[in-house]
Amino acid sequence: MKLKSLIGSTKTYIILLVLAIALLLYTVSVGYKQVNRLHKTGDLVSHTFEVQRTIVELSSKFLEVEAIQLKKLFEAEESNLSTIVVTEMGQSLDRLNTLTIDNDAQQERVKALQLLHNKIKVEIDTATIVDATKAPDSLEVKDSIVINYTGLRYKRNERISKLVAESQVIKDRMLAEENYLMVSRKEEYTSQSFLTPMSSLLVALTALGIFLIGFISIYKQKGEINEVNSQVFVQNKKLQETEEFLKGVYKSSNNVISHFEPILDTQKNITDFQFRYTSNAIEKVTGSEQDDIIGGSLLEMYPMVLENGLFVLMKECYVSGNTQEHESVYTFEGEKKYIFNTIVKSANGITNTAWDTTKIKKAEEELKKLNEDLSLQNTIFKEAENVAGVGSFIWYLDDGTATVSDNFYRILGVEPNSFEVTFSSYKEFVHPEDVAIFESIGANIEEKGASTVFAYRVFTKAKGIKHLDLKGKYVEIDNRPVSVGIVQDITSRVEKDRALIESYEKLKISNEELESFNRVASHDLQEPLRKIQMFISRIEDDGEKGMPVGIQNYFGKIKDGTFRMRELIQNLLSYSRIDKINSKFENISLSEVVGKIEDELSQLIKDTGTSISYDNLPDIQGIPFKIEQLCTNLISNSIKYGKSGVAPKIIISAKKVRNSEIVENFSKTTEYYYKISFADNGIGFEPEFASNIFEVFQRLHSKNEYSGTGIGLSICKKIVEKHNGYIHAIGKKDQGSTFVIYLPVN
């Protein structure tokens, strides 16, 4: 009775209601806290992914700067792309600093990355100043000293490569830290995702108990119960949204995130791992579908992990709990890929984050090849310096120190690096008379970019005095005045110039003597001949009839001799003056020239019965009266050396030929030539005399057989050479001869 009355008591219901409300509030608060914790855990996971993405983005900026600098070094490309990337790198650093503000260890690494960024920015800014001054593959000069500009760029790229390598080490540490945080936060998320439904269930059970204990009271407060159920529904919906958000985060990552649970045998030994989860990024890396992988066996799908050691590390991580790292080459769908794995222990298994580093490896291989090519180019450059007899230098004008190439030392006659090159040490090699020239290199303050050229002498131990030519360009490096450039041994050139000057002076004297001879020949030598001819004519007019026949013969021979002497002098003068003719070239019709010569030699042609045939002769460029003299000499020569009793026959022909068709060996200055031939039926000549007949005073017959001075063909050769052409003769004794002339079309 007491129990029944106690249960039916209003006070009991009030107490039960209060207890129920308290319990309900407690369970609701616990559930609410669980949902908030789950939401916060999801935010932390999202935050970790954002940090990882920013780290990878920043790492790619470092590598991009390195690649751009290498490209600029070898392709002579000039752009501000490096500056843009460095600016973007700074923005990524600011974002990373904000994201890791609550992680002291990561903050220290961010500071280290910021320091590396500042160093790279200094290198890029310096490079921009230097590149703006001069193209990278050129040599620049200042104050007479020369620098190897490619060497500066190479060293700068080496420094940038080292800074990038340091950034990659820091990146790997930061990613490892974030992966560890990711695993721990996922474990917390898993725990929270388990507790939250339990809390919701507890709330539901509590509500049901309250309903059973105080149906009447709860029925009266039906609206309050509905409100509580509504709150539970909202919390469950938030939980589902959080789960979807995490799945979206996993999908957005380029890394393959997989969770495994061990498969144990009867002795509790790990024989395999089962895929419990993997992100969809695995489809891009391996080509396998995500749904086909989840739930499958690791060794069945990827047996190569036994050979490359990844499986052993996964077991070690599960047993010891220590984070493991592994990198190896995998072949997926016929394509080789480098995969870097980070393995961490989780609550019921292990989590592996796989990063496809194929592009980075290829970039490293390309960088290695570029370094090898650069080393080869440096070797070639050194050999080129040695062959060309030049040396390169970088001379700092503020303190006189210098960096010089090995061949610079060799030019001085010493072994490379046998002494430290400075203004004072190098001045000991300079000739005392040229010290002032050398000192002006350091004392002269040039405007930026101005060039200097010096020629001076040095003493060497082995070869005595050498003449050097120094070309330098003034630049500023790190706000220091610098002269960069080359020095060349020009001793042999100076000696050749000196010999050339001496030869010129001798030639000048010889020409003056020849001019004096021409004056004498044109006036003094011809004057006695004119008097001899005049007095012989008077003697013949006054007493030829009473003069004995023998005396008349003597006077006839004197007349012939004086005539030949005068003709010889005139021909010599004509021969010596050909090179001094500066008349302008004109368009000349060869047909008209030959027709004019026929008129002038008409009496000779008539007396000898000569026939001259020609047709379609071209127009050429030349000096008119010299071309007439050339043709006259050749036609007269053919008539003079005709066969006895046979009427001379001369055939003149011409055609246009390409220089490659000409077999004769002479300097061909144009693509096309006119081949002009003068063929006759005269006495000809022996083939071995084909070149001799063009020499001065060379006669194949005595003056009693054929008249002439032996200069006519020499004059022809001079005229043809004056017109940048070539002449040669073809003949056979008693079978006529042919004179072939090549004259440029233009």
Cα-atom Rg, whole angstroms?
A: 53 Å
Return residue spans where pLDDT drops below 50 for at least 5 consecutive residues: 135-149, 444-449, 697-709
Amount of beta strand:
15-25%
Number of domains: 4
Give a written overview of the molecule.
The protein is an alpha+beta fold and 746 residues long. It has four domains: 10-127 and 150-207; 254-362, Beta-Lactamase (2-Layer Sandwich), CATH 3.30.450.20; 388-495, PAS domain (Beta-Lactamase), CATH 3.30.450.20; 581-744, 2-Layer Sandwich (Heat Shock Protein 90), CATH 3.30.565. The protein has 23 helices and 19 strands. The strands form five sheets. It has a five-stranded antiparallel β-sheet with strand order 4-3-7-6-5, with helices on both faces. A hairpin with a 3-residue loop joins β10 (451-460) and β11. α2 (10-75) runs antiparallel to α3, α2 (10-75) packs parallel to α7 and α22 (624-640) runs antiparallel to α23. Mean pLDDT is 76; it is low at 135-149, 444-449 and 697-709.
